[in-house]
């Protein structure tokens, strides 16, 4: 796997970057790829409504990689599910390429925290699943699936069963499965958070390379600032209860980036500093609520050192 | 390996005791036949094809009845599992009917179909269908929501969603229901064949009784047990295990 990462790196990234920028700019004069307008959502719990998302407005350009970062429970998954059409917002609208969305659809494929591969199908059939739903015929389906399996370096495992794969491999199959459908957007909900640091590091590389190759618009949810800096063009910070857009950062580091790169680490630390107030609020709030079971106080009370690979809120 | 030896020894011992009981002459032969005469009847029965024909007839009935109950059972289970109104109405009927021993359907079967194959097949269906329905219902309700969400974002809907996602995802439950349904079906088949006399293994058992041929009765019983074991152990247990392994429900 390490070998293949190195090979991928030799692509002329600057060239691709310039091209995709130009293309993106041209299109964005007309309309953004994704427009989230005044989205609000509240949940009913113990007969009390509480607001999970409040008046979210967000746009993404064609080919942009946007990361949504926020502490646990701030509504990241809820927002992503609303964009995916898996959940309904109380108010507001979501537009994709100028079309208002109404329910789930194959133009916005979601990659979940757990791979959600179907265990009754082998790897290649999993990748073909979406194409089959679209009605693509057998041999064409197989070819497309193989092409994307190749992109995630798993052609050798095309006939393996899901239970024979490691967590990282499963997630790569899920990425191939999503890409094979050639969706307008990829929606990713903490896809790498269940993986070990090593695998995550490799997948950060692969995802960046895939993104550079396919120029997909990606909305990526994470609670890990370092991961966001490593991947995103733009980072959107959500605050908690109610979930609101707190701040935005643009990351302009050369790609592909490395988790452990000094610049990435420095940038993460800078964002962390700016967010200190918000983080403290969350910690305090959770301490007051006397429910610290899930909050990562260890990570949140101290600024992560440069050697800290995780660097989560 | 060791356990197989133990098992073989146990059966040899059992047959030995049986032979001894006969030698002591406690019971006359028409009450308790010798192992040897049972063995002879078995060989003879297979040799002149009477056993084979009976097995074929019984297997054909159960194949038809069980096949129909799989289709009906999965269909009803899907209805109950996915649609609220069927859950509230049909669901309660099904769980009520399940308390009824299958053989209680016999009078109705005779009235509707008469003394024939169709009545027996009806009994087989009534034996298996409820277990399969209930298991499918449970399976459908425990399909991980993640699979459904993934399928929906990939554009699966309508009957394709059922056929390609919900049913396969529910398969570990369905196969357990099918296994239980099989054993109920097999019992109802035998009961039906004993009471509605028209060929088959159950009928062969009744002939044994009428001829006062105890060795035939026991020989047929052994055949029935062996078929039951073959289907249950060699087919269902294996398939169930495979599926659970694939679906990631057990560690390999
Ligand atoms: N179906 C639901 N019913 C009630 N409350 C819900 C529901 N789904 C989410 N919530 C609440 O909405 C809030 C936001 O949830 P969400 O899952 O979007 O958070 P998140 O940012 O994805 O958190 P994490 O980082 O832990 O995944 C949480 O407080 C959660 O308890
Ligand atoms: Mg979440």
Question: Can you walk through the features of this model?
Answer:
The complex is a heterodimer of chains A (313) and B (252). The two termini of chain A are 29 Å apart. With 313 residues, chain A is of the alpha/beta class. Chain A has ten helices and ten strands. Chain A has helices at 2-9, 13-30, 76-84, 123-134, 138-151, 167-180, 197-214, 225-231, 262-288, 297-301; strands spanning 34-45, 48-60, 65-69, 91-96, 99-100, 108-111, 185-189, 217-222, 234-239, 244-250. In chain A, strand 7, helix 7 (197-214) and strand 8 (217-222) form a beta-alpha-beta unit. Chain B has 252 residues and is an all-alpha fold. Chain B has eleven helices and no strands. Chain B has one domain (43-246): MetI-like (MetI-like fold), CATH 1.10.3720.10. The model of chain B has no long low-confidence stretch (mean pLDDT 91). The two termini of chain B are 22 Å apart. In chain B, helix 3 runs parallel beside helix 7 (117-141) and helix 3 (50-82) crosses helix 9. The longest helix of chain B is centred in the last third of the chain and has 38 residues, at 158-195. Chains A and B meet through strand 6 and helix 4 of A and helix 8 and helix 9 of B. Adenosine-5'-triphosphate (ATP) is lined by residues 43, 45, 52, 70, 72-78, 223 of chain A. The site of adenosine-5'-triphosphate has 12 residues of chain A, from strand 1 and helix 3.
Notable characteristics:
heterodimer; A: 313 residues; alpha/beta; six-stranded mixed β-sheet; four-stranded antiparallel β-sheet; 10 helices; 42% helix; disordered N terminus; B: 252 residues; mainly alpha; MetI-like fold; 11 helices; 81% helix; 0% strand; binds adenosine-5'-triphosphate; binds magnesium ion
């Amino acid at each position: 796997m390490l070998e293949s990462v190195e090979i991928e790196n030799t692509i002329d990234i600057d060239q691709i970057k310039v091209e995709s920028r130009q293309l993106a700019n041209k299109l964005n004069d007309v309309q953004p790829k994704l427009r989230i307008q005044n989205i609000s959502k509240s949940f009913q719990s113990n007969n009390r409504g509480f607001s999970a998302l409040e008046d979210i407005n967000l746009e993404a350009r064609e080919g942009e990689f946007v990361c949504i970062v926020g502490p646990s429970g701030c509504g990241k998954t809820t927002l992503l599910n609303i964009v995916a059409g898996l959940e309904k917002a109380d108010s507001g609208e979501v537009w994709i390429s100028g079309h208002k969305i109404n329910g789930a659809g194959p133009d916005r494929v979601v990659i979940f925290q757990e791979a959600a591969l179907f265990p009754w199908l082998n790897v290649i059939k999993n990748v073909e699943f979406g194409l089959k739903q679209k009605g693509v015929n057998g041999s064409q389906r197989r070819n497309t699936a193989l092409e994307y399996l190749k992109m995630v370096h798993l052609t050798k495992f095309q006939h393996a069963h899901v239970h024979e794969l490691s967590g990282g491999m499963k997630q790569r199959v899920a990425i191939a499965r999503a890409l094979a459908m050639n969706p307008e957007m990829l929606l990713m909900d903490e896809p790498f958070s269940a993986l070990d640091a090593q695998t995550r590091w490799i997948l950060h590389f692969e995802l960046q390379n895939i993104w550079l190759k396919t120029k997909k618009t990606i909305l990526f949810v994470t609670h890990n600032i370092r991961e966001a800096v490593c991947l995103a063009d733009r980072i959107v910070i959500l605050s908690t209860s109610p979930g609101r857009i707190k701040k935005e950062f643009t990351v302009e580091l050369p790609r592909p980036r490395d988790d452990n790169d000094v610049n990435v680490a420095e940038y993460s630390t800078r964002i962390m500093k700016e967010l200190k107030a918000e983080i403290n609020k969350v910690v305090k709030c959770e301490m007051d609520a006397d429910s610290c079971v899930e909050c990562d106080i260890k990570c949140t009370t101290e600024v992560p050192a440069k050697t800290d690979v995780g660097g989560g809120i | 390996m060791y356990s197989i030896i133990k098992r073989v020894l146990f059966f040899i011992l059992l047959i030995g005791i049986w032979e001894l009981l006969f030698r002591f002459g406690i019971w006359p032969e028409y009450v308790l036949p010798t192992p040897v005469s049972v063995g002879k009847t078995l060989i003879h029965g297979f040799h002149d094809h009477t056993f084979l024909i009976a097995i074929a007839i019984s297997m054909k009935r159960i194949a038809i009845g069980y096949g129909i109950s799989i289709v009906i059972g999965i269909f009803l289970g899907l209805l109950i599992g996915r649609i609220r109104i069927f859950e509230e109405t049909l669901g309660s009927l099904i769980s009520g009917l399940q308390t009824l021993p299958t053989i209680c359907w016999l009078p109705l079967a005779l009235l509707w179909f008469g003394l024939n194959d169709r009545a027996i097949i009806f009994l087989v269906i009534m034996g298996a269908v409820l277990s399969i329905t209930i298991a499918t219902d449970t399976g459908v309700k425990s399909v991980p929501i993640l699979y459904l969400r993934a399928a929906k974002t990939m554009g699966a809907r309508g009957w394709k969603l059922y056929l390609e996602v919900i049913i396969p995802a529910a398969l570990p439950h369905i196969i357990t229901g099918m296994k239980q349904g099989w054993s109920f079906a097999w019992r109802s088949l035998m009961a039906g064949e004993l009471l509605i006399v028209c060929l088959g293994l159950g009928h062969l058992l009744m002939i044994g009784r009428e001829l006062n041929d105890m060795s035939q009765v026991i020989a047929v019983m052994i055949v029935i047990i062996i078929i039951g074991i073959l289907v249950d152990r060699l087919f269902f247990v294996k398939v169930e295990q495979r599926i659970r392994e694939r679906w990631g429900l057990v560690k390999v």
